[in-house]
Amino acid sequence: MDKSERPALVACLLGIAMLIAIAAAVPDASNLPAWGAMPDAGAQAVTVSSASGSSGTSHSGSGAPAGPSQPDNAPATQPATQPGPPKTLPGGQTKIFGDGRFLVAYYGTAETGALGVLGETSPDQMQRRVHRAAQPFARRHQPVQVVYELIVTIADRYPGKGGDYSHDIPRAEVQKYIDAAHRHDALLLLDIQPGRSDFLTVAKRWAWALKDPYVGLALDPEWRMGRHGVPGTRIGSVDAREVNRVSAWLRDLVARHHLPQKLFVLHQFRVDMIDHIGSIEPRRGLVMVQHVDGFGTPGQKLDTFHTVVRPHQFFLGFKLFYDEDVHRMSPAEVRRIRPKVRFVSFQ
């Protein structure tokens, strides 16, 4: 070989050696993770729950050691899930009447006493008042459970923006009562007066609150006007089919969010307020209460009660009025009513 060709040959050999070294340092692409499995540096990895359809966020830097990587052809394994704290009713209960308790409510709306005693004071002051009203109903082995029955959709005499003759109270006001219920181990019952709307349409607007285990739902057919009625000019009504649609939706919400039993109340003081009431279906996860309203003398109230109640279909409720009742019935008189009343509200 000519001496002049030696430098070129040496350079060529050195180049080949460098290429071999680089190839040895680069991993085979088939061993790399998929691109979508590699979050950007500092990004949060999002996990999706198939049970709820909602996404949660997994944060890095938790201090937990990383597990061994799985080869691409390894069988998929599900990590062990750590269940959160169980969702319960006040006092850790899972059933509304599970320990024989008796429910006592204050009824009304927020920030005003015009529609009932509930809104005459702040939630914390009201709690003290309803607690005092509830205590005489307690019996041995039958504790009382305080309930706030809050009208969240109020029937109006004018159409309003939506033309449905009703309006919702502010969400922030409802949240105040949810917070108070948790502070004081009370139940919260959202009462709906839909005007010309239907109960299911309105109930869905309050789904955010009904996901709370302490919160139940009450339907007031007196204020369900249909297409042409005006609240306050006549007594409204609802058909059992509509009630069943609402209760089915609420049952599904309870199941989807793994909630304890939820209170489901139907107000009534005339037979024709609920058409085909015998067709109302029981729902798993819901405690169905027929709540008999109406004011007057004890005799008048009991006549109404015995005319409309269906004790083999529902738990029974009864309303007492501070202003409208004549010789308002005492707790002892209410406890003597047969069939038994399990839920009393004050308006």
Give the SSE layout.
Blueprint: H1 6-25, E1 45-48, E2 55-58, E3 102-108, H2 123-134, E4 144-155, E5 166-168, H3 171-184, E6 187-192, H4 199-205, H5 207-210, E7 215-219, E8 238-239, H6 240-256, E9 262-268, E10 274-275, E11 286-292, H7 298-308, E12 315-320, H8 331-335, E13 343-346
Parallel strand pairs: 3-4, 3-13, 4-6, 6-7, 7-9, 8-10, 9-11, 11-12, 12-13
Antiparallel strand pairs: 1-2, 4-5
Summarize the structure.
With 347 residues, the protein is an alpha/beta fold.
Structure commentary:
The protein is of the alpha/beta class and 347 residues long. 26% of the residues lie in helices and 20% in strands. The chain is built from 8 helices and 13 strands. The strands form 3 sheets. The chain has an 8-stranded parallel beta barrel with strand order 3-4-6-7-9-11-12-13, surrounded by 5 helices. It has a two-stranded antiparallel sheet with strand order 1-2. The longest helix is centred in the first third of the chain and has 20 residues, at 6-25. Mean pLDDT is 82; it is low at 2-10 and 16-83.
